[in-house]
C-alpha cells in the first residue's frame, strides 16, 4: 500500500494550521474572561499582598499592564517551545506540567478504557444486529438508546444509590481509599479498580447506544451494496463477508467519531468526575476555571487540543489504509 505524498502534505499542512489556530485561541480565550488570577488571589488574601508582590505576580503570569498583548503572545509561544507551561496559581505556584501529569493518568485510565470498551462492544454489537436485521436482536437498539438519552448526571447518581449505597458493591467516590497513598502494590491497584469500576460502567452504558445505532444503520446501507451480493454469490463464509467486507466498510464513519472520543478522553468527563469526586483532568479544568488560573487553563486546553489533533491524524491514517478511495481523492 502506497500513500501519495500529496495526501500526506495536505493533511500535514491542515493540522499544522489547525494547531496554530488552536494555540492562538488558547492564549486569548482566558484573557477574554472577566477578572484575572492575581485579582482573584488578592480578593482571597485581602491585605496580605503588597503592591510590589502584586506586580511580581502579574509579571510572572504574563499579565503586566506595561507589556503589550503582542509581547505576551510571543512570550507565550517562546515558553511553549521551551516546554514551559507556566506555574499554577491555584496549586501553590507548582509547574503546570506537574499538576497536569498528576491528574492525567486517572482520566486516561478510567475514561480511556471505558471509551475503548464502549466503542469495541458497541461497534461489534451494531454489526451483528445489522447483519441479522429483522431478528429479535433489534430490541437491543431502543434499550441502549434509552440509556444514552438519560443525562449522565442522573445515571451516575442512580448507580451510586443502587450499587453503592444500597447494595454496597462499589465505593461511591474518589479514586482510592481515604488515607491510602499511591503506590504500585496489589492492594492499591485493587482499590483503584474497585473505585473506578462504577464510573467506568456508567460511561459504557451511557455511550453504548450511539455506537450500536450508528454501526447498525451503516450496516443496513452496506449490505445492499453489490460487492456484498457478489461475495455471497461466490460462496464465501458468512463470517468472512460480515467482518472482512460489510463491517470493514460500515465502520469507516465510526472512526471519525471514535477519533474525537479518543481526543476528548484527555479532557475527561467533567460531570462524571464531579459526581464521583474523581481526581481527573475534567475536575482539574473546572477548578482552574473557577480560580481563573490562566496558566493551568491554558495547559489543560493545550493538552486536550493536541490530543484531539493526534486522534484525528490517526483517524486519517486509518481511513487511508482501510479505504483506498480516500487516498485517490486527496491525490
Q: How would you describe the overall organization of this protein?
A:
- This protein has 331 residues and is mainly α.
- It is 73% helix and 1% strand.
- The protein contains 15 helices and two strands.
- It has helices at 5-31, 37-44, 51-60, 69-81, 96-131, 140-149, 152-166, 186-222, 226-233, 238-250, 252-265, 270-275, 281-290, 294-322, 324-330; strands spanning 87-88, 94-95.
- The longest helix is centred in the middle third of the chain and has 37 residues, at 186-222.
- The two termini are 14 Å apart.
Task: Give a brief description.
This is Peptide ABC transporter permease. The protein has about 325 residues and is mainly α.
Identify low-pLDDT runs: none
Examine the secondary-structure arrangement and name the CATH architecture of the largest domain.
Orthogonal Bundle
* Count of alpha and pi helical runs: 15
Question: Helices and strands: which structural class?
Answer: mainly alpha
Query: In which range does the helix fraction lie?
Result: over 70%
Number of strands: 2
CATH level 3 topology of the largest domain: MetI-like fold
Reported for the largest beta sheet, the result is: 2 strands, antiparallel
Q: Which percent range describes the beta-strand content? A: under 5%
Distance between the first and last residues' Cα: 14 Å
Could you say how many structural domains there are in total? 2
CATH class categorisation of the largest domain:
Mainly Alpha
Order the strands across the largest sheet as they lie in space.
1-2
CATH superfamily heading of the largest domain: MetI-like
What is the alpha-carbon Rg in Å? 24 Å
Envelope shape: globular
Mean pLDDT: 78
